[in-house]
Amino acid sequence: MSVDAKHARLPYRGIQPELKQLLAERFGEAFTTADAIREQHGRGEGYHQSFDPDAVLFAQSAEQVSAVVKLCAEHRTPIIPYGAGTSLEGNFAALAGGLTLDLSQMDRIIAVNSEDMDCTIQPGVTRIQLNEYLRDTGLFFPVDPGATATIGGMAATRASGTNAVRYGTMRENVIALEVVLADGRIVRTARRARKSAAGYDLTRLFVGSEGTLGIITEITLKLHGIPEASAVAVCPFDSLEGAVKTVIQMIQMGIPIARVELLDRAQMRALNLWSKTQHAERDTLFVEFHGSEAGIAEQIEMFKALAVDNGGRDPVWASSPEERSRLWKARHEALYASMALRPGSRPWTTDVCVPISRLAECILQTSADIEASSMTATMVGHVGDGNFHVVFLIDPNRPEDFVEASRLNDRLVARAQAMEGTCTGEHGIGWGKIDALEAELSEGVAVMRSIKRTLDPDNILNPGKIFRL
Questions:
Q1: Could you give phi then psi for residue 274, rounded to 5 degrees?
Q2: For residue 224, what are the β-bridge partners?
Q3: Which of 83, 228, 244, 249 lies 20 to 30 Å from 45 when distance is taken between CA atoms?
């Protein structure tokens, strides 16, 4: 299942000259073929080879998106939706050329319904922007993948993050969508009601479809009350096994954790170097609790008891907003900190998720693989829901690094799938994990192809992603 860019490239379709002229005339400066902008829109934050589009168009409204899609459909031209460019599996690479539709300027917060605890936004709104807007309402949006991603991109990839163990992923937090289909029709998938038994669940069909079935132009989201109190602990452990066992026991006991993140000793060393912190360079848990003052005090005592039994040592606690932000800022910079361990390297960030009962086994076997290899790598994970990542640091001038990272990644994915887990908990498939998805779902992928052919018969929407046609 090693990634091979030669197998990713599709037959080139590009943009016909007459379509370029039509788009330039109709959309003016919003349409560009500038090399620098095309290059920016062909490159993500992962290790994948870049595939640049032939042109980029900055969309302003759903009606404009519909008009663009209709023109591209007439010319059978590929369209690739783009948000903030933070994807890790080549999710928006222009594998057949074509037009990248940048939705980042569609960044209006349309409505906040405080009494119903929901909001409606355009896809270019980021989670940071939304939470700043909500600050005085007593509400917040909890899905936090770490990157400054657009919420449209997060919905398209069914993103997750540090808060998923308590608040769920994008799947649980999207109520309804407005979507432009491959023929330019604008459809709504649901109303604002919190539950519905009205027909097929179209919302969940488009959440996680990576722009291959439709282009998301509006999102209605669940919001949550800002908790009365919060507390964060950074707790080092004598062993990786002890840290993972503590997480499993907390989940099994029903302790209501808001976030729990695992960072191995290599990652903690990287954080200290990057963030100028002085954490113990051991396998470490970052844990956050939400609730009332009394409830948090009880949760803390339960966590302490479990941590001590499993080799936890001297947790550092933070309760003020400033202290909590500082600790989580260090966690969110883990990728950049890792890259600093090997200057000039490119990161290959893996992503698997397993049932919680198999988590310790999967992590320990993966750690043993890393220790036995020649690779520089770190490990981080949203371990409360069985999801973790290995960051391989690859020297672009050493082909053997890529070969070894491919070997270790293949073993990791196969291990997770053998444990009834998945090849991706949050990054999506893009073109980087197409073979892994085939191995995981088999006939399920055939059903996906049937849906794709029905909604996008000319394969113009983000072609070459999730599966091959």
A1: -80, -45
A2: 140
A3: 244
Domain boundaries, the chain: 5-105, 109-225, 229-418
**Residue 128: φ, ψ to 5°:** -65, -45
CA distances from 459 to 97, 159, 464, 465, 467 (A): 13, 24, 9, 11, 12
Q: Which amino acid is at 255?
A: I
Q: What is the CA radius of gyration of the chain?
A: 22
CATH topology of domain 109-225: 3.30.465
Weakest-pLDDT range from 49-58, 69-78, 177-186, 343-352: 343-352
CA distances (Å), origin 143, targets 11, 290, 322, 404: 37, 15, 20, 33
Domain 5-105 has CATH 3.40.50.620: no
Q: Is the pLDDT of residue 6 over 70?
A: no
Closest CA to 421 of 339, 371, 351: 351
56-115: pLDDT as tens digits? 999 999 999 999 999 999 999 999 999 999 888 989 999 999 999 999 999 999 999 999
d(CA 164, CA 162): 6
Please provide residue 179's backbone torsions phi and psi, each rounded to the nearest 5 degrees.
Answer: -135, 140
Fold type of domain 229-418:
Vanillyl-alcohol Oxidase; Chain A, domain 3 (3.40.462)
Which helix (H) or strand (E) element contains residue 48? none
Name the residue with tokens 């990791």: 412
**Spatial contact of 356 and 385, defined as CB atoms under 8 Å apart:** yes
Q: Which two tokens stand for residue 293?
A: 């003052």
Distance CA 183, CA 162 (A): 37
Q: Give, rounded to a whole angstrom, the gap between the first and last alpha carbons of the chain.
A: 18
Q: What angle do CA 132, 137, 140 make, to 5 degrees?
A: 55
Same topology, domains 5-105 and 109-225? Answer is no
Round to whole Å and give the CA distance between 119 and 113: 6
Q: C-alpha angle 81/174/108, rounded to 5°? A: 60
Closest CA to 349 of 391, 383, 377: 391
Q: What does the alpha-carbon distance between residue 47 and residue 409 come to, in Å, rounded to a whole number?
A: 13
Spatial separation of the C-alpha atoms in residues 457 and 74, rounded to whole Å: 12
Phi, psi values for residue 313, rounded to 5°:
-135, 125
Dihedrals phi, psi of 299, to nearest 5 degrees: -65, -40
Q: Which of 144-153, 349-358, 368-377 has the lowest mean pLDDT?
A: 144-153
Among the listed residues 363, 58, 299, 196, the one whose alpha carbon sits nearest the alpha carbon of residue 68: 58
SS3 153: helix
Contact indicator for 257, 289 with CB cutoff of 8 Å: yes
